Amino acid sequence: MLELRPLTEHIGMEVLNVDATQPIDAETFAALRDALNTHSVLLLRQQPVSESQHVAFAREFGELQVHVLSQYLTTPYPELYVLSNVKQDGKAIGNHKEGWNWHSDWSYYDVPCFGSVLHAVEVPPVGADTLFSSMFAAYDALDEETKRLIQPLSAVHSYSTYYAKAFADREPLTEVQKAATPDVIHPLVRRHQETGRPSLFVGQDIVKEIVGLSPEESDALLARLNAHAVSEQFVYRHKWQAHDLLIWDNRCTMHQATPYDDVAYRRVMHRATVKGSERPQALV
């Protein structure tokens, strides 16, 4: 049986009795998945996993997906996407300053990912926290009129739009990368695949527009929903320690990275991403 300790009222549990550096039985993995379905974010402290152990652990949640930005797959395992400010021989080993807007990972795919497993290899002593917000709680807290308004609506998720805004100072996406990430349409409210619970499905920058609304109406509604979705009462702020292993369900959360002194300190994070198995399902 898992020993769990709440991180906040609405989102997150710390798992106290699982060691990801050791073999884990099927019953324990089933319990971890059940806990993730219920609590959306799981924290395992003091998990100095090797790259191979990280990949093996993440793979127990499902097939792993390789990131389209292949220049940041700099470990021997292409399943691990590197987030880092470190350079080796003058070349970045990972993507730096990514995710500073609220988003769910890979929502720009027709079938978005199931979840992510992030290992803190090296962290700065201050800063670089990650914020997580419960989209279950955000949806539940909407007034009934807003729920009725948004339930039948869909929105365009656009990686190219996000990339142009977030990384205007970098090389543009290659034609191959653009072809791999066309714009997609998803419902504004999605039903969780395992639990059936409704959640808000929005995001800053990646969500370009709401289908069927004028640009002014779309911008206003998205701004309102995005602001509501990350209200303080729905948010857990994670302060990283070295060798934290954090698992989150991208189907019902958003998250955001925060800045740190990237001149004074090094940061190295390895993320494995678990593929999704179906398109987001609307409530209506």
TrEMBL record:
Cited Pfam families: TauD
Name of protein: Taurine dioxygenase
Native organism: Pantoea coffeiphila
SUPFAM superfamilies: Clavaminate synthase-like
Highest taxon of source: Bacteria
GO terms under cellular component: cytoplasm
Gene Ontology molecular function: metal ion binding; taurine dioxygenase activity
Domain TauD/TfdA-like: 4-273
UniProt-listed PANTHER family: ALPHA-KETOGLUTARATE-DEPENDENT SULFONATE DIOXYGENASE
Biological processes, Gene Ontology terms: sulfur compound metabolic process
Family, per entry: Belongs to the TfdA dioxygenase family.
UniProt entry keywords in alphabetical sequence: Dioxygenase, Iron, Metal-binding, Oxidoreductase
Keyword S-adenosyl-L-methionine: no
